[in-house]
Amino acid sequence: MSRNNMQRGIRAAALLTSVSLALAGCAGGDEGTGEGGDDGQVTLRFAWWGVDSRHAMTEEMIDLFEEQNPDITVETEPGTWDAYWDALATKAATGEMPDVVQTVDPYVLEYGRNGQLADLTQFGDVLDLSPYGEAILTDSSEDGKVWGVPGGLTTYSVWTNPDVVEEAGLEMPDDDTWSWEDYAELTTEVPEAVPDAVGSGQMSFYAEPFTLFARQHGEQLWSDDGGLGFSKETLVEWWEYVADLTESGGMLSPERSIEENTHDGDAFARGEMAFKPGWATQLGQVGALNDEVDLQLLRMPGEDGAEARGDWVKPSMHYSIAESSEHKEAAARLIDFIVNSPEAGAILGADRGLPPNPEVLAEIQGDLGVADQKAAAYLAERLAEPENPRPLPPEGASEINAIFLRLSQEVLYGNLSPDAAADQLIAETEAAIG
């Protein structure tokens, strides 16, 4: 088993663009499914990111796969999110991409469009895609090609500690009607009533809360024609809201947000925060607090209780096959086992999101932990609502994550006005997507 000590960085898109022509040559060595190399003993390389607990359960799952498939040996290459994407791009550029890779949007589309990922529809004999509808495969598909199978489903939410809300003398909000103004009032009142507590986790370090905010304004992060789908006015309004709430003390300061940038070490995990925006399926990572407090999942605030709440359900990550792999059929067998086997589902649980295969979820749901049970119920409610699809991100879209983080910090530290930061984000993002 190999272990990758990769260096920090996530901006793979720029490197992918610069090496795409070279990769076209690297990708041409394998024909079809690579059946010629799969007749005898096959060794696959499988790379993913995560923490130690994910690594351990993935290794356990692979042991079971190898036991049931004695003709396949899997060499594992686990890593951390911070370093995964630059390392993967470097391996792709040298023709050394692992056979099976864990991907996520928008990277899965960027790799697929550049010819670096195999079209999974060609492996129908060993990889069953029928449990996954068109909506679930949207983030990893284009022009009839499917470059990734979802490894889990998730949706955005507000993690809520009712004990802190009660200690502050407040009532739990009605998340079907609460507005952004309601959220600001509640989160500001928490530290006023409980000096050691924080009202809300920081919202502006990630693009997802703004994406939801833009959708509530009838806009999108991306447009149907591959450009920006939101207006400068909406972005300025968002940053003004977050900056005002941070200044009032209702939202965690940027300094503390950077210091406490782990699920196990932040104020919410210590029981000192009322609300924290985050992916519903990651609530279980809070750990011991789940056994001590009846934590709740609320939907994000809406615009004065508007019906169009902006929620969306998405794959939390995907499994893909490198186009350069010499053992694509064996790789497809591994992916099929991971996503379609209840035995694998029982080991992996909801670590990568709730299983998108309904049969697997039904099989293991009763054995999930309390937090994951809550996530499953919350996700089911969102899936039952009318779908509000998101346009596919253009090539280079992954750059917006780093741009958004950097400029949000500039706004919160007072170095840039929301107006100036919005101009800069739009200019930089438009340059990135070309």
TrEMBL record:
Domain of life: Bacteria
Keyword Signal: yes
Pfam families: SBP_bac_8
Signal peptide range in chain numbering: 1-24
Record has Disulfide bond as a keyword: no
Swiss-Prot/TrEMBL keywords: Signal
Protein name in the entry: Carbohydrate ABC transporter substrate-binding protein
Organism the protein comes from: Myceligenerans pegani
